[in-house]
Amino acid sequence: MPNARAIKTFVLLGGLAALAACGITGPAHDAPMANAAAVVDMGFTSFEPEVVHIRVGQTVQWRNTALITHNVSDDASKAVNPTDASIPAGATPFDSGDLKAGNVYSHTFTVPGTYRYFCGHHEDDAMFGTVIVDPAL
User: pLDDT, tens digit, for every residue of 53-112?
Assistant: First the structure.
């Protein structure tokens, strides 16, 4: 009959092998959209890159590459500090809702100008980003 120590070692090694097979380095995420003009990764408490430049009619995709829930919004009415978000005149605010690890959100910009957005879960950590939308060619 095997001893208890050998059984514990076998179970521990089996569990580690299962974790390695699943990948423990972070979440998988959807591939960038083929038509996304810019892709922004949501890290632990930052957007990367923090500033993107696109043209009217182009799309930005945000990917939650962290193991924590994020969101992305430029709706000042949802901000703790309304100056953390801004949109140009004539634009409609966007809000992704909660994005769990690996989730993506895309938004197509139709009004030129500067959009300042935030993560509602990490606004106090200064998790902000900017999209600068230039007129179409």
Answer: 999 999 999 999 999 999 999 999 999 999 999 999 999 999 999 999 999 999 999 999
SS3 32: coil
Domain membership flag for residue 11: no
Cis peptide before 93 (omega within 30 of 0): no
The angle subtended at Cα 102 by Cα 69 and Cα 114, nearest 5°, is 70
Alpha-carbon span 16 to 18, nearest angstrom: 5
Q: Hunting for tokens 């990948």 — which residue is that? A: 23
Phi, psi angle pair for 12, to nearest 5°: -65, -45
> What is the pTM assigned to this prediction?
0.77
Query: 33: domain CATH number?
Result: 2.60.40.420
Taking only Cα atoms into account, the Rg of the chain, rounded to an integer number of angstroms, comes to: 20
**Tally of domains within the chain:** 1
Residues composing the chain = 137
| Residue at 3 is within a domain | no
User: Which domain range does residue 92 map to?
Assistant: 27-134
